[in-house]
Every structure is written in structure tokens, then in C-alpha cells.
Design a protein that fits this description.
Layout lengths: L10 E3 L11 E3 L10 H7 L6 H4 L11 H13 L2 E3 L4 E13 L9 E13 L2 E12 L7 E11 L6
Parallel strand pairs: 1-3
Antiparallel strand pairs: 2-5, 4-7, 5-6, 6-7
Length: about 160
């Protein structure tokens, strides 16, 4: 599903002004996972072979696995967090405190929200600490929370 464009808060900057992103909040568009994408994800990650874990389970129909949600952070954030320079590259640098708070199914609509908590110079790049959560429409509890570290570099993509 293509995210809606209502209530989107984009955080962008020029390379020389990345530090101004610190403290800024971001909000993505509403999004849902198409049911026909569940099985390919399960196949690619071998969770379709966890038959013992699935026998007699109480998982709701159309459940979007937690790691499936986690993998969507990249897609959901790339539309709203970026540098106004065609030569920049973002690298996944790691995650801290990931929590899967409430289940999500293909019937749910959610969006990424968060704050650029820190911007730290790292070699020739900038390390951003993003406090993220997936907000589910009409639900108090988020689907997931995470502290995400992303390294942004310029030029040929060498990691700092």
C-alpha cells in the first residue's frame, strides 16, 4: 500500500547543517502491509518452517511478524528523513531497545513516528540516533518501539 500524505512531518537538511536535525520530530504517512506480502517474507526469513512454534498457536489471522515490522523501518523512514544532496548514503548502524508492544495484522494501518535524538560526528559521516515507534491508527499502544542508529555518509559510500 502506498502511504497517505496527510499529517507527514519531513525532516531534511543540507549536509553541512545535519546537526540542526537533532531534537526534530518526524511522522510518516499511514501504511499497511498487503496480505500477499506476508508469505514471501516468511519464506525469505524461513519463519514458514517454524511449524512446531505455529502448531496450536493463538496468532491472529494476517499477523505481520515483528521482524517484518522492524524491516519496514527503512522503507518508512526513507520517505521523510533525508539529506538534500544526491551523493549521500544511509547505513543501518544498529538497533537498541527494540520492543514489539502490540500485534499488527494486515487489517491495521500504522505509521512511523519519532525524534532525531542525537546527531554525532563519526569520521567523515554523521551518526543519527532515532527514537522510533510505529503508531497504529485508533490504538493507544504502539506496535513497536526502537532506538535506531543510522550512519549517513557523503561521496563514494565509504563507511566512517
Amino acid at each position: 500500500m502506498t502511504p497517505s500524505t496527510t499529517d507527514i512531518t519531513t525532516v531534511s537538511s543540507s549536509w553541512g547543517d545535519i546537526s540542526s536535525m537533532q531534537g526534530r520530530e518526524f511522522t510518516g504517512g499511514w501504511f499497511s502491509v498487503d496480505a500477499d506480502r506476508l508469505q514471501p517474507f516468511d519464506f525469505a526469513t524461513y519463519t514458514d518452517q517454524n511449524t512446531v512454534a505455529l502448531e496450536g498457536s493463538n496468532f491472529p489471522d494476517g499477523l505481520v511478524e515483528g521482524f517484518h515490522l522492524l524491516s519496514l523501518l527503512d522503507h518508512l523512514s526513507n520517505q521523510i528523513l533525508y539529506i538534500d544532496d544526491p551523493a549521500w548514503t544511509g547505513w543501518n548502524y544498529g538497533l537498541d531497545r527494540v520492543r514489539f508492544v502490540s500485534p499488527v495484522t494486515v487489517d491495521d494501518v500504522f505509521r512511523i513516528r519519532g525524534t532525531v535524538s542525537e546527531v554525532i560526528p563519526r569520521g567523515d559521516g554523521q551518526l543519527l540516533l532515532l527514537s522510533c515507534w510505529l503508531e497504529v491508527r485508533d490504538r493507544v499502544k504502539p506496535a513497536m518501539t526502537a532506538e535506531w542508529r543510522v550512519l549517513w555518509t557523503l561521496g563514494d559510500g565509504d563507511r566512517a
